[in-house]
Specification:
By secondary structure, the chain is of the alpha+beta class. The protein is built from six helices and four strands. The chain has a four-stranded antiparallel sheet with strand order 2-1-4-3. The longest helix has 17 residues, at 38-54.
Length: 176
């Protein structure tokens, strides 16, 4: 089973070369938020839906704080398989406190495969791009925002772009 669905017309293209561990770590530092409320989850989720619709991206979107699902959307072209990928990628963020792409990239840069070296059930954990930690100043990682339906680098890029837009606004529903 492959994760990468064909990229829809207008979908964000994957980067020419995958980001490095240093670049991914810098993204996480830069995207630490001052707070993250239920209202913020709704605003971020709706921003992601709007961005995905404009790109005709067949994605599912999930936002969690702890064990609570605060937002979920499934756009046309997505399927239950995307929900399964969301769960697997989100579990990596919950376990490691870092983006699923960063965890996978760190393994690849060491010349190992996450699936073998992590010794975690591959049907429960996937270190593929698309799940990003929601980190709050003074609290650390409190949740995750996850996208599934595009190639892994495009899933990751969509989440990062949305978080960058979200963080650059008045940080909240009134600014998104």
């Amino acid at each position: 089973m492959t994760h990468a669905a064909p990229t829809a017309a207008g979908a964000a293209p994957a980067a020419e070369s995958p980001p490095t561990v240093e670049e991914l770590s810098a993204q996480e530092q830069r995207l630490t938020l001052p707070r993250f409320t239920h209202t913020d989850a709704w605003a971020l989720g709706n921003l992601l839906v709007e961005m995905a619709r404009l790109r005709e991206a067949p994605v599912a979107i999930d936002i969690r704080r702890g064990q609570q699902q605060l937002f979920h959307a499934a756009l046309p072209g997505s399927s239950a398989d995307n929900d399964a990928w969301i769960d697997r990628k989100r579990r990596v963020v919950e376990r490691y406190g870092e983006s699923s792409l960063l965890v996978g990239t760190r393994h690849r840069e060491r010349g190992t495969a996450f699936e073998q070296s992590a010794r975690l059930a591959p049907d429960r954990y996937a270190a593929h791009g698309g799940s990003f930690p929601i980190a709050v100043e003074g609290a650390g990682v409190i949740g995750a925002v996850t996208v599934s339906g595009l190639p892994q680098l495009a899933d990751h890029a969509l989440v990062v772009e949305a978080l960058e837009r979200f963080a650059s606004t008045a940080h909240g529903a009134s600014g998104v």
